[in-house]
Amino acid sequence: MKRLFLFLALLGSGIIASAQYRVSSVDSTFSSEYEMKYLLETENSTIVYGTFTSKDECTMNFSRELAVLQDDVRYKLRKSINIPMYDEAEPKYAMFREAGEKANFVLEFDKFPLHDGLDIIETDKPKEGGIYLNVRGVHLEPIDIERFPDYNSFVNSYPVTIFGRYVENGSTHQYYLRNNFYISCQCTDVDDGIFEPKYKRFYIEMKNNSDHGVLFNFDDTYVLGHKKVGGKQQDKYFTKYTPEAFDDYMAQGDYYEAKNAVGGMKDVSSKLRSESYNRDNGEWANLGLKVLSDITDGLAEKNIQQYIADHPKTRPSALKSQSLNPGDSVCGYLAFEKKKVDTFTLHIKMDGYDFAFYWK
Fold first, then answer.
1. Rounded to an integer, what distance in angstroms lies between the CA atom of residue 114 and that of residue 14?
2. Contact 80, 64 (CB under 8 A)
3. What does the pLDDT look like over 290-317, one tens digit per residue?
């Protein structure tokens, strides 16, 4: 598991406050989605607590230009907890699916001399309709430490769904982190010249670090394609291959590789194409070793089996329905017949949430 981000981490091993304040009022705010809550002075930094409430479906993160402006000096943002900072190499976003969803966040800035009426500025040139943490004239009221919210309780008050993507070896990976449950997806077009039709293969990784079990149900996965026809969008479902059909297909590919390696293989691709795929029901037929053996022109079966034994495959198999208890992880493939569309979305419904992966 190469990407597992636990955003709900403490800013350090401990937070030692020297003074704490409640935000009593602000003079103006560019985006009403933001509400500033508290400010905490520590020995080495200043920490700001806030809440974001969505007005509609949206994704958002904080610009790395976000700073506290005071006495014409900018104090840089060091860390953002719960709502990620923009990262060109690995863009991450907090995802909100509907109006009224909330997320508490904590921002750590370079320590600055505290004056009433400070400004928190994300951009000097906000665009109309954009969502920016531009707050002018933040007024503070000192409060006792007993009235200051517990850090963990504050950041964990609302579940935050993080969506991100990164590129590795030329391949794009997308992932979600929600309630300490991690799921990632990589999509590959497969056209091996042997089997028809071409198909989309999705490599899925899941890690359950939550405090409860999660069920992966194979039947709750599907791909929906989208295509513009005559100015109107048409949606179509991709045919899904069962785990057994996909694993059988992979085994046939291994057999083909072994047969070709140990004795050469004549042009059998047309026969494999015609017999491996049943177009009436959209599933791979079970050729088994007998069909392949019938077309090998007498190539010794034992040599093929020996080659397979000497070259074991360590790749994951197809994903099957299974429970993931806390601490469990699993990886594997989902496969769908390829269709001619403009874009398509893989949906995996788990733990009351639709994890949607968008591809072109």
1. 22
2. no
3. 444 454 444 457 777 777 778 777 677 8
Q: Are 70 and 42 in contact (CB under 8 A)?
A: no
Residue of 27, 110, 8 whose CA lies nearest to 68: 110
The whole-model pTM stands at 0.81
Per residue in 189-242, pLDDT (tens digit) is: 887 655 556 789 999 999 999 999 999 999 999 999 999 998 899 999 999 999
Q: How far apart are CA 5 and CA 171, in angstroms?
A: 19
Which CA distances in Å does 209 have to 40, 131, 318, 338? 30, 31, 22, 33
Question: HEC states along the chain?
Answer: CCCCCCCCCCCCCCCCEEEEEEEEEEEEECCCCEEEEEEEEECCEEEEEEEEECCCCEEECECCCCEEEECCEEEEEEEEECCCECCCCCCEEEEECCCCCEEEEEEEEECCCCCCCEEEECCCCCCCCCCCCCEEEEEEEECCHHHCCCHHHHHCCCCCEEEEEEEECCEEEEEEEECCEEEEEEEEEECCCCCCCCEEEEEEEEEECCCCCEEECHHHEEEEEEEEECCEEEEEECCECCHHHHHHHHHHHHHHHHHHHHHCCCCCHHHHHHHHEECCCCEECCCHHHHHHHCCCCCCHHHHHHHHHHCCCCCCCECCCEEECCCCEEEEEEEEECCCCCEEEEEEEECCEEEEEEEC
* 208: phi then psi, degrees, rounded to nearest 5: -100, 100
179 sits in the region (left: phi over 0; alpha: psi -120 to 50; else beta) called left
Q: Report the pLDDT value the prediction gives residue 128, as an integer from 0 to 100.
A: 86
State the Cα–Cα distance between residues 188 and 252, nearest whole angstrom.
Answer: 19
